[in-house]
Write a structure and sequence with these properties.
two-stranded antiparallel ribbon, 13-stranded mixed β-sheet, 2 domains, 15 strands, 375 residues, elongated
């Protein structure tokens, strides 16, 4: 009984075979068919190989939602060099609520304002990258996916005497409230004040003012050395002593999830303005470097995605089946055109023979021997 059941099942499966079976004696092999088959198999192999690279590639997906986290602290990462001595300048943050944030995480280091050859090479490379980022926006996705961990050459401690070091490097981080604020570097050290804060600028001569500066790094949120920010590599040199540099920054909270890193960073855009302080000409203000930032209420989720395996198989089957069907139709059309052309050509020869003069037909007939003549 089991054998009979298996035989019936095999017979049923054979009857359900929907693919046509043509005997080999009915198949005619031609040079055109072989050429088309060779071209079809070559295209299948090439496109399947290229599709594999598409399957390996990834892309970044951007999603937007409201940032509901307003109680946490925002980290500011700073690395800026000012062409003034450290005892003459002070850096701190004043938020929108007139609360002065402690800048204990910032370190003041006496350095040379000029860069070493290695640092200057890194600075030039960074400026080229910044220029390409403004033109090629897709380069930012490549930076997100690669997550470069290499940091720029660190500034080594100089062996020169402190009196010969005329610049100050301010680097470190601070934690501020997630409200708009103003990070500034100006003359004099900051002191607490009932109405906010103040700087002891009276003890510094105006002749020593020089707010030429270089921003090696400025970021918000978690510190990722591979992420390049808009102000990284900015260098401003002023010939005037009383000069105000202003940067207006809009921060966008960003959650970055790739196959290499997962971090909460903060992208930002910036516009800048600078002017010389001249009270006689009506240009009022305070000399220094002012970075006024505001935080967007929207949050961006950047996720690296990959093509699913089933989608890759479907696309691969589509490529193979599409090429097979297309080349089959092309082969049929080309064969039909060749048959039509050859048939018309043969019909033309037949018409020439049929329309020949009677004398030529008689001559041709006399040339053909008959059975009576042979006897």
């Amino acid at each position: 009984m089991r054998r009979l059941t298996q035989k019936k099942a095999l017979t049923l499966v054979k009857e359900l075979d929907a693919f046509p079976k043509v005997p080999e004696s009915y198949v005619e092999s031609t040079a055109i068919g072989g050429t088309v088959s060779l071209i079809a198999f070559t295209l299948m192999a090439v496109l399947a190989f290229l599709e594999f690279f598409v399957y390996r590639n990834t892309w970044m997906k951007y999603e937007y939602e409201v940032d509901k986290d307003f109680s946490s602290k925002l980290r500011i990462n700073v690395d800026i060099t000012v062409a003034m001595r450290c005892q003459y300048i002070g850096a701190d943050v004043l938020d929108l609520a007139e609360n002065m944030v402690a800048s204990d995480g910032l370190k003041y280091e006496a350095v040379h304002f000029e860069l070493s050859p290695e640092q200057r090479l890194w600075h030039i490379t960074l400026l080229h990258i910044q220029e390409r980022l403004r033109v090629e926006h897709a380069l930012q996705d490549l930076i997100f996916k690669s997550a470069i961990k290499e940091a720029p050459p660190a500034q080594t401690h100089s062996e020169d005497s402190p009196s010969s070091l005329r610049a100050c490097r301010i680097h470190g981080h601070m934690y501020v409230n997630k409200v708009a604020g103003n990070f500034h570097v100006t003359v004099g050290k900051s002191i607490p004040h009932p109405r906010g804060h103040a700087h002891l600028a009276a003890l510094v001569s105006h002749d020593t003012y020089n707010f030429s500066h270089r921003i090696d790094h400025l970021s918000f949120g978690e510190l990722i050395p591979g992420i390049i920010n808009p102000l990284d590599g900015t260098e401003k040199v002023s010939a005037e002593s009383n000069h105000m540099f202003q940067y207006f920054i809009t921060i966008v909270p960003t959650k970055l999830n790739t196959y290499k890193i997962s971090a909460e960073i903060h992208q930002y855009s910036v516009t800048e303005q600078e002017r010389v302080i001249n009270h006689a000409a009506g240009s009022h203000g305070v000399s220094g470097i002012f970075m006024k930032y505001d935080i967007s209420s929207l949050m961006v989720k950047v996720t690296e995605q990959h093509m699913p395996l089933w989608q890759f198989l479907v696309r691969l089957c589509g490529i193979i089946g599409g090429i097979f069907s297309t080349t089959g139709m092309l082969h049929s059309v080309v064969g039909f055109m060749i048959d039509v052309f050859c048939c018309r050509f043969q019909m033309g020869i037949y018409k020439q023979i049929k329309e020949a003069p009677p004398n030529e037909q008689q001559d041709s007939e006399t040339l053909i021997p008959t059975e009576n003549d042979a006897q």
